């Protein structure tokens, strides 16, 4: 035995080596960690590297322009987006648009969400319980659905079919109907939820005695808000800003629905154009820019705040909480709340639902303009030219519904299972290299917007790898499931980690002492205790995947399409009423799931 | 019933050296308490013995059989060490009833159902919790949960029972009850028990032996009486005993007839027979005179050999009274049984039996003169 650098080093003998190997191999946990890391590496690191590599490799379709052989190293794609005379239209203009949209969305949604949070948690506004439930419902509506309802309200003659307001004879200018303002407002009515959930949970964790102390010291209510409450929730506001910014920059559905038809492109929508029409590697390069942007935003946030707060809401139990009296401000604030709910929920939903019954959109709700065709009509009953029957008569709808249900069930079960598993590894490996490695690998998909992520998978799995070990999954349903699963890893493993944290290691150690093997421990102790957390984790993933459009839009075709995608296609083709009808179905599906999830005690605040 | 030998155990967490070359033998049938402040390595030692932690260095034998041989990277699985552990948090499985909790280990061992049942009932009966067998842990009080945890541990008839601060989550009264319960258990089972605590009263009242830890090392292993009467260094002396031992500065010289010590208590000559084997500096050197508060006898009248003192404060507390005294610029505390009311600044006289005084060398902090231990056991 010799002591080197204060630590013991034994000479390596055969027996020692044998025992060391046995110690590692005999412990199933080590094996599980080992295989999980390999799988994570294959599913996350390799696709990322692959995509980076493809932006430097000449593809067959561009060889004529680039010269050389397919597979040669080239800077063509990066030059294309960074310095060519197309660079401005390809990268810089959409990048500028993305950033502007991101910033303005933050500007609208963060104050909106924070004020809502404060009103619901801290003020004595009447009907808080009901309001608290209603306020999250707009978030349940997928953001692309919001875009469709926006169109239903503001559409003008540019797209051939009038919207609600134009139908009333109002002249809706393009700048209001489409483009940045529409996109920012739609996104704000979606992403306010981040700030709302963050700020309200922060407020809940703050003891209201802190505010009361301010009152005793003689501060007025605005003074208390400004110098006590605000600084205390500032970290959660900051992290909401970061989340909103990184999410809104990468969002596809809203920007595509509201921007494409007037030629207004963001990074995400422009990227999709390239991926569809080529050169694809340009699209990949753009998605790398998008990833870099998101990573930059999130890591700068960690630098500023210090902790990964954008990833974990503030926990801890609060002390006593007394409501702050609003006094004279109560009535105006109530009006503000009701107005918000009408704007964000009631009106769009109403217009959306009503539009599904209209013959011609924007023509009012007179009996002669009402029809059930869009729901149950057959082609020969059509009053206007259309090649599609009503959605319930359309086999495409049935197929897409089946796909949606299949995808959400399969993907969310797998995701939730993997999440618990990864959560187990990262909690039990806390402070060890494999624990933090798992955590970091799992975090990577969080940095990528849905479109960027699926682009990566699309690039990776469009041909076989490792000599067929990873087969080509091009155009398969499996690929869509796989993409959904991996993209939801960060959130699922976060819920898994939280779940596993509640199961003290001592419970497992007690079983070990009593002679239980690893698998017995898992089966008899960990799984039964993790059950409840698993169910709520599953429900939340389920809703999140059911809403999804951005993530899977690149991979969809007629065979694999989901309801979200079908609605998107119909909307792009101008069949607004049918697109709306499908959105209503999706909404219904999600709301039902939400109610069931609530029954299981799932906290919607954790579902992004 | 098992003898545990730990030899040169070294344990690191990263660069943090938690156990430093720990060597300790626990005899068959001992009630050995690992005592020390938090973070001193006592729980780690327990976990090493249990097999939940693997030390990077050292050897452990159970009844002469190797359980750990770090040089060969050999670590016997916890379940094969014939021991059981009671966790500080109890670690009762919340999804199982009391009965199922206790039966778990026995079922894992694939014992016949009838035997499982009889052993569970026996354990329930011994811990007097038979009426709770169908309850879930969260339907029990802290003390009841504690009993279930112990019942679960003893149901497997372990040769060695490990207890990790099992009483720290209980209230003061329950703690005293459980102490006598554990003492009975030790006697009835005859099992070797290793008990971790930071509470010296628990250690002193229950153990047959105490291992006092200091920053990952053992500072003293002895019987409770010996540890209390003759702590090996100033730190140990300071840690053991409540109220704290009195420290008074003094000067000492080694003479042919013994150790001469001058302090606020006056001049004493201690016989060489009471001195330890610690090296003694030559000439006059600084010492610390240590006196337990209960060894100070107070009288209102001056008797031969007594020391005049003044009362600084008087704290009557029912069964005892703590009196702060001053003499020759030094403060010290005396403990008197029963209620006594002395006036502040009252003149009193104290007597201290020289054979009960400990002397420590100030520089090395080691004990150089022992206190004599009376035979406290009753004649059979």
Structure notes:
The complex is a heterodimer of chains A (608) and B (380). Chain A has 608 residues and is mainly α. Chain A has 26 helices and two strands. A two-stranded antiparallel ribbon of chain A has the order 1-2. In chain A, helix 19 (433-447) packs antiparallel against helix 22. Chain B is of the alpha+beta class. Chain B has two domains: 4-237, P-loop containing nucleotide triphosphate hydrolases (Rossmann fold); 238-369, OB fold (Dihydrolipoamide Acetyltransferase, E2P), CATH 2.40.50. Helices cover 22% and strands 36% of the residues of chain B. Chain B has eight helices and 22 strands. Chain B has helices at residues 42-50, 98-108, 113-126, 142-155, 172-189, 200-206, 224-229, 234-239, and strands spanning 4-13, 16-26, 31-35, 57-62, 65-69, 74-75, 83-86, 160-164, 192-197, 209-214, 217-222, 246-255, 258-263, 266-270, 284-291, 296-299, 307-316, 320-327, 330-337, 347-352, 358-361, 367-369. In chain B, the strands form four sheets. In chain B, strands 7-8-9-3-10-11 form a six-stranded mixed beta sheet, sandwiched between helices. In chain B, strands 14-13-12-15-21-22 form a six-stranded antiparallel beta sheet, with no helix packed on it. In chain B, helix 3 (113-126) crosses helix 4 (142-155). The A-B interface holds A 1, 6-8, 10, 13, 15-17, 19-20, 23, 504, 506-507, 509-516, 520, 524-525, 528-529 and B 10, 12, 15, 17, 50-52, 56-57, 70-75, 78-79, 83-85, 87, 89, 91-95, 104-105, 108-109, 152, 156.
């Amino acid at each position: 035995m010799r002591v080197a650098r204060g630590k013991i080093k034994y000479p390596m003998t055969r027996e020692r080596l044998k025992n060391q190997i046995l110690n590692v191999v005999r412990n199933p946990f080590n094996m599980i960690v080992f295989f999980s890391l390999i799988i994570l590496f294959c599913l996350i690191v390799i696709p990322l590297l692959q995509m980076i590599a493809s932006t430097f490799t000449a593809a067959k379709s561009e060889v004529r322009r680039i010269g050389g052989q397919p597979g040669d190293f080239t800077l063509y794609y990066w030059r294309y987006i960074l310095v060519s005379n197309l660079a401005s239209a390809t990268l810089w203009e959409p990048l500028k648009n993305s950033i502007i949209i991101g910033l303005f969305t933050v500007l609208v949604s963060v104050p909106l969400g924070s004020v809502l949070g404060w009103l619901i948690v801290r003020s004595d506004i009447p009907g808080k319980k009901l309001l608290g439930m209603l306020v999250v419902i707009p978030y349940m509506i997928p953001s692309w659905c919001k875009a469709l309802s926006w169109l239903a309200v503001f559409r003008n003659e540019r797209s051939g079919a009038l919207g609600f307001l134009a139908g009333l004879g109002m002249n809706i200018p393009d700048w209001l109907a489409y483009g940045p303002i529409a996109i920012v407002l739609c996104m704000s009515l979606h992403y306010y939820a981040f700030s709302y959930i963050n700020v309200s949970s922060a407020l809940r964790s703050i003891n209201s005695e802190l505010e009361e102390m301010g009152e005793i010291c003689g501060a007025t209510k605005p003074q208390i808000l400004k110098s006590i409450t605000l600084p205390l929730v500032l970290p959660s506001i900051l992290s909401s800003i970061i989340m909103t910014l990184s999410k809104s920059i990468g969002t596809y559905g809203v920007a595509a629905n509201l921007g494409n038809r007037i030629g207004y492109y963001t990074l995400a929508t422009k990227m999709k154009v390239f991926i569809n029409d080529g050169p694809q590697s340009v699209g990949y390069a753009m998605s790398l820019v998008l990833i870099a942007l998101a990573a930059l935003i999130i890591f700068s946030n960690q630098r500023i705040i210090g902790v990964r707060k954008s990833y974990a809401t503030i926990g801890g139990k609060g002390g006593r909480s007394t409501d702050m009296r609003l006094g004279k401000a109560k009535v105006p604030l109530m009006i503000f709340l009701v107005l918000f709910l009408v704007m964000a929920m009631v009106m769009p939903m109403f217009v959306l639902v009503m539009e599904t019954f209209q013959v011609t959109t924007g023509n009012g709700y007179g009996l002669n303009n009402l029809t059930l065709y869009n729901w149950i009509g057959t082609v020969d009953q059509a009053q206007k030219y259309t090649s599609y029957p009503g959605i319930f008569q359309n086999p495409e709808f049935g197929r897409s519904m089946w796909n949606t249900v299949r995808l959400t069930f399969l993907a969310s079960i797998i995701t939730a299972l993997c999440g618990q598993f990864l959560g187990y590894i990262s909690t039990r490996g806390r402070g060890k290299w494999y624990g933090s490695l798992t955590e970091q690998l799992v975090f990577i998909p969080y940095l990528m917007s849905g479109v960027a992520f699926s682009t990566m998978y699309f690039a990776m799995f469009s041909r076989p790898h490792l000599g067929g070990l990873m087969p080509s999954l091009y155009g398969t349903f499996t690929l869509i499931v796989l993409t959904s699963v991996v993209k939801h890893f960060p959130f699922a493993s976060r819920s898994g980690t939280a779940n596993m944290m509640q199961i003290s290691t001592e419970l497992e150690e007690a079983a070990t002492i009593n002679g239980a093997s690893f698998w017995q421990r898992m089966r008899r102790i960990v799984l039964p205790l993790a059950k409840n957390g698993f169910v709520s984790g599953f429900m939340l993933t389920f809703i999140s995947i059911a809403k999804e459009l951005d993530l899977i839009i690149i991979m969809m075709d007629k065979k694999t399409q989901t309801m979200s995608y079908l609605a998107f296609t119909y909307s792009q083709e101008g069949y607004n009423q049918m697109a709306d009808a499908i959105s209503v179905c999706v909404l219904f599906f999600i709301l039902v799931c939400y109610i069931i999830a609530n029954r299981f005690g799932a906290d919607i605040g954790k579902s992004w | 019933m098992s003898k545990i030998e730990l030899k040169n155990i070294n344990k690191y967490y990263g660069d943090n050296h938690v156990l430093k070359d720990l060597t300790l033998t626990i005899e068959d049938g001992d009630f050995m308490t690992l005592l020390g402040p938090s973070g001193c390595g006592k729980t780690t030692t327990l976990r090493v013995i249990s097999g939940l932690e693997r030390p990077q260095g050292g050897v452990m034998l159970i009844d002469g059989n190797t359980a750990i041989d770090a040089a060969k990277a050999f670590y016997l699985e916890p379940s094969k060490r014939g021991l059981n552990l009671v966790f500080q948090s109890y670690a009762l499985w919340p999804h199982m009833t009391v009965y199922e909790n206790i039966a778990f280990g026995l079922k894992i061992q694939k014992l016949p159902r009838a035997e499982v049942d009889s052993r569970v009932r026996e354990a329930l009966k011994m811990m007097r919790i038979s009426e709770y067998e169908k309850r879930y842990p969260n339907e029990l009080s802290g003390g009841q949960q504690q009993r279930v945890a112990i019942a679960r541990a003893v149901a497997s008839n372990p040769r060695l029972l490990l207890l990790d601060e099992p009483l720290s989550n209980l209230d003061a009264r329950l703690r005293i009850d459980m102490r006598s319960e554990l003492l009975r258990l030790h006697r009835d089972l005859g099992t070797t028990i290793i008990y971790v605590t930071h509470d010296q009263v628990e250690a002193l009242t229950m153990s047959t032996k105490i291992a006092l830890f200091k920053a990952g090392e053992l500072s003293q292993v002895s019987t409770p009486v010996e540890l209390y009467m003759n702590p090996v260094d100033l730190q140990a002396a300071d840690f053991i005993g409540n109220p704290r031992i009195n420290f008074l500065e003094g000067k000492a010289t080694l003479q042919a007839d013994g150790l001469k010590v001058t302090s606020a208590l006056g001049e004493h000559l201690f016989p060489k027979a009471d001195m330890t084997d610690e090296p003694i500096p030559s000439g006059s050197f600084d010492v610390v005179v240590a006196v337990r508060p209960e060894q100070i006898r107070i009288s209102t009248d001056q008797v031969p050999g007594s020391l005049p003192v003044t009362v600084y404060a008087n704290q009557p507390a029912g069964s005892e009274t703590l009196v702060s005294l001053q003499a020759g610029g030094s403060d010290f505390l005396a403990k008197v049984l029963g209620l006594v009311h002395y006036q502040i600044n009252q003149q009193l006289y104290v007597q201290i039996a020289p054979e009960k005084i400990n002397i420590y060398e100030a520089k090395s902090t080691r004990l150089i003169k022992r206190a004599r231990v009376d035979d406290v056991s009753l004649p059979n």
